[in-house]
Each structure stands twice: as C-alpha cells, then as structure tokens.
Amino acid sequence: MSNPVLIEVMRGQLVESRHRGAVAVCDADGNAALAIGDVTAPVFPRSAVKALQALPLIEQGAAERFGLGDEELALACASHSGEAAHVDAVERMLAKAGLLPSDLRCGVHWPIAQAAAAAVARCGAPSALHNNCSGKHAGFLCVARAIGVEPADYWQPEHPVQRAVRGVLEDFTGASLAETCCAIDGCSVPTWAVPLRNLAHGFAKFGTGRGVSAEWARAAMRLRQACAAAPWFVAGTGRFCTEVMQLFGQRVFVKTGAEGVYCAALPQQGLGIAVKCDDGSSRAAQAIMAAAIARFLPLDAGERAGLQRFVAPVQRNWNGFEVGQIRITEALR
Amino acid sequence: MSNPVLIEVMRGQLVESRHRGAVAVCDADGNAALAIGDVTAPVFPRSAVKALQALPLIEQGAAERFGLGDEELALACASHSGEAAHVDAVERMLAKAGLLPSDLRCGVHWPIAQAAAAAVARCGAPSALHNNCSGKHAGFLCVARAIGVEPADYWQPEHPVQRAVRGVLEDFTGASLAETCCAIDGCSVPTWAVPLRNLAHGFAKFGTGRGVSAEWARAAMRLRQACAAAPWFVAGTGRFCTEVMQLFGQRVFVKTGAEGVYCAALPQQGLGIAVKCDDGSSRAAQAIMAAAIARFLPLDAGERAGLQRFVAPVQRNWNGFEVGQIRITEALR
C-alpha cells in the first residue's frame, strides 16, 4: 500500500514534511467521481461519522420528544472545542431528557480551545461536558431515554443505542460491519472500519436522501439543516468545519475525525467526500478536504478566497513571522 | 522519494495510521552503522540540535563567566515543558548575565505540560519564559554578553551569535550550509537543513569529542555531563528525552526536534543517531529513536523494559481503556 503524497509542508524553500493519503468522491448510486490512492482499505472514520451516529436521535423521535433545537442537534454531530456555550448547551440538552452530566461516559479532557482551557483552569478543572464528544454522548443518552431502555451502558457495542448506530452505518455506507473491524474510539463507543469509497457513498446518501428510507432521508435533512443553522456548535471558534459551514450554509456539510479523517456532503452536487491521511495528520486531512471541496463545488471569487486559506495555509511561528506554507501536490490538483 | 513505513499505529486489530521515515547511524569518522531510507536529503533538525547550538556558550567562556551550572546548561539544550522550575531557572540564568525575560525574542506560548499550563492560567498568562526554547535563547543572550556584542538582535542570521552557531553546525556535521537551506525556526532563530547522515556524524563527534578541536570536545563533554546530571531540565515530567537520560545517564544523550526529528549520541559505542519521520510526527519519531537506541546500546533486562514502553507504547483513550498500540515494522527490526 503506497498512497500518493498529497500535501507538502514547506519551511522556507524546502519541503520539511510530506503527507500521503487517499480521497474518495462518490454519488448516491455509488459511482466514483474521484478516487485517489487506495479507497478500498478499511478506515476507522472516528468522529467524521458523528452525523450518521446522530441519525437515530431524529428517527427514534428523541429530538422531537425532548424539544431539541438546531444547537443541540449540531452538538450531537460535533467535535466541539469545549467553549462555554458548547458546555452549557450540552448540559441543557441532558436536562431536557432528565439526565445529568454524570451520566456521560465519554471521559474527561481539557477543552480543545486554548482560551476555553485557560478559563476552565481559572475556576476549576474540566468535566466530561468539556470532552469534544459530549454532545454526541448526550444524543446517545437521549435516544436511550426515548426508546425506554436503561441508559447506563449506552456506549457498549451491544447496547440497543449502539446496535441502532451500527445499523445506520451499514444502511448508509453499504459496508458490512464485521466484529473484526470494530475498535474502541477515544470516547469509548465502538468505531467501525469502513472503506473510504463506502464512506463517500454514505455521505452522498446523507446529503441527498437518495438510496435510504424516507425516515432516514428526513432525519439526515434535519441534521444538515441544524448544522448549517448552528455551525459554531459543530466545532468552535476558528475551526475548519465551523468556518466552512458558515461560508457555504447548506451547500456543504463537513466533519472532521481523529487520525486524519474527514467526511463531507455536497447536497447540490449529489456527492459525498471521504479523506484519510495515512499518518493521521489533521493539518493535512484538512487541506486535502478543502482542496476536494474547491474542486467539486462551484465557487464565486469570495468563496474561493475563503476556502483557499484552508487549501494552502500560511505557517507562522510564535512571533507571527511567516515561516512556510502547506501546499497540495499535483496528485490532488 | 519513498522512505519505508517504520511505524504502524494499531487500533484494535487494524493498522489505523502509518508513518514513514529515515534513520542514520554513524561513527565519528562518518562510517554508516545503519542507513534506512534516504539519509542524504536535507532535513531541518529544528530543536534536535540545540546541544550543538549551545556549544559556544561553553567555548566562548560564557558559562564559566556567569557561573552557569548543570541545570542552566541543560536548559540551554532543552525544549522544556514550561513547568515552574524550568521557568524559574531560565529567569535565574538571565539574571546571572544581567539580562531580563523581556530580552528574550523566542515568542510566547503556553507551557507544553498541561498541569503547568493550568497553573499559569490560574495566576495570569504565559510569557516568553514559558516558551520551550527560552533556555536556548537565554544561552544565546549569555554568549552575546560574553563576547561583548549588542544582544538585541541575537536571533538574526547575521548576528555574531548565530554566525558562531552556524560555524559549529558546519564543523560538527561537515555539511556546508548554503543560504538556500536556511529557514526560520518556531522560535525565530535560523534553522539550517542538513542531511540525516551528517546529523548522525555530528552527534557521533558530539558524543566522543573525536574529529573536532579540543575546545569543542571539552564543550561537548560539559554539555553531555550537564544533561545527564539534570535531565529533567532538558524536557520535563514524563517526557521521552528526560526519562531516557534518567535511565541511561551519560550512556545516552537524546534530544527531540519539531516535525519528527530526533538526534542522539551513544558515547560508549562511538555512535550518533539521527531520525526524521517524513510526516513530522513526534509519536513516530520517538518510537523510531527508542528502537534505534535499543538496537545499538547494550541493555540489561530492566533497561530493555524501560525503553520498550517507548518502542511500543500502549494507546489509551480518555477513560483509560487500552485501544491499541504503536509498533515498529520489520524495516526497523
């Protein structure tokens, strides 16, 4: 397996580091619009499929029953930065279903956002609410409540909530999920390895509602609308997913995952996109995804400029001096 | 250029991410003991050559004149974690030469150590003292004072301090440093690209004193002694460089650099080691360096076990569950 170099990190006039990877772009019938590198190898999508993992929240009636709005649905799809309004909204979401922060089983980490981490340090220590996955976990707990099962083990592979999630992933990606491709995610729920082309296919279906039941199509549309209406809740201040969805509204759904994965849907083009950087780098996966969006989405000059700073970000040091640039290679152009 | 995959990051039963790289091991005559991948391509060594950058501090008499001890000399070679005792020692070092924290030009970032960052947040904000390079910069300032030049521009390529550093790098590595291979480091001083085999050769000379003048050999020995005596000051609590030098004392000098670089010296074996992970990953470069040390340094059972947790670290998630492992590939065994 040798995927092509897609990203070069320049320092001065030299390439300092290189990132290899693969990209799949598919329509809702599974036809490939682009395939770079090996798009058939199983890849753990990690948090890039949170929007698929959140579909039962709509389909099982939990969102309606507990009166969840755009911000809360966006958080169910989010890897949030742990900023104050993220944390408050997750707590509110739990309360609507009669749940407590202590019901979360995602584990604890400091907020991703440095300013938020400093603010937390000033008045205490982080809790599970600050975990970037707390909104997803709150969503799982709401589903457990809505279907009337004991929520305590909601994160275990055999719990009805995770079995429902597994079913969604199979329905959307068309991949059959064997036990051998199941591992444990950073927040302890199962993560299922799926080939990149299946992930792209799944997100084409997520973006268009084609190839899935009317109920799943409606649920997907509701989540896309929520993320487009409240993109700050999907990531946070200055983050790629937030800024791209702020720029494009419902024209782009995009979500990052750990270890260099990104998934996106371009509903008007009927396309899904899936990216994996071989080495797990986020900086590279982000530039690859930005380049893929720029290639398939019709852009005006302002939009192109808005996206370009993610396709080819300038690298600055601690004094703010320009020290280099990230650039895409010929293989991606 | 296609270096071999040296590191696989496992999640469950699957390889989730892969890291390619190159390794050079040389003796002080420049004979290769090992060469994996392309060891002739220029590589920015970044902070991995801080010990070479600190040699003028001894050779120009600054350390003696200002009464710098082991901790301060170790800090001049360090990428420290910004823990309280690091910061205090850098401030003390500056004061000995009549300098102030405001003379530092390395820029400001939050301490690398999470606990230290939280402690700083509780009583204010970070300063240049918390920058992981503040000890190196304090060393540069001490050199400027000792040779009687205006210290203000000590970080500029044409300042006498940086010209002296460039001379040391050429003397030790045998590489001729053209302007085309100069870029700006994270802390704003010049970083010069040098082939990996030359870096390995340079660290064999650093570890043995062979192939350089008696003055440089003496300076190198003083820095190695200082780092072996005060390894916590070279990195910090729980960090690789600190723990390896705590384990092996003067038998190993090892130093990390940004973008996946490591350099080491094994004085008793007469060898230098240089590692570059293609994609700039620290987790991979660290495991590669640990494996290289394990290969060339005679180890007893306890030492082998101590090093093994860096060669093949277990990966845990936010709940402490084991989710996978980093492992070296056949190419590195």
Q: How would you describe this protein?
A:
The structure is a homodimer of 333-residue chains. Chain A is built from 13 helices and 12 strands. With 333 residues, chain A is of the alpha+beta class. In chain A, strands 1, 2, 3, 8, 9, 10, 11 and 12 form an 8-stranded antiparallel beta sheet that branches. In chain A, strands 4-7 form a two-stranded antiparallel sheet. In chain A, strand 8 (253-257) and strand 9 form a beta hairpin. In chain A, helix 4 crosses helix 10, helix 5 packs parallel to helix 7 (134-146) and helix 12 (282-296) packs antiparallel against helix 13. The mean pLDDT of chain A is 97. The interface between A and B is large, with 53 and 52 residues.
How would you sum up this structure in a few lines?
Helices cover 40% and strands 19% of the residues of chain A.
Structural class of chain A: alpha+beta
Global Rg of chain A: 19 Å
Q: Biggest interface, and residues per chain? A: A-B, 53 and 52 residues
Number of helices of chain A: 13
Summed over residues and divided by their number, the pLDDT of chain A gives a mean of: 97
Secondary-structure element pattern of chain A, one letter each: EEEEHHHHHHHHEEEHHHEEEHHEE
Number of strands of chain A: 12
Helix content of chain A: 40-55%
Question: End-to-end distance of chain A, in Å?
Answer: 22 Å
Strand content of chain A: 15-25%
Biggest sheet features of chain A: 8 strands, antiparallel
Low-confidence stretches of chain A: none
How would you describe the shape of chain A?
globular
As an assembly, this protein is homodimer
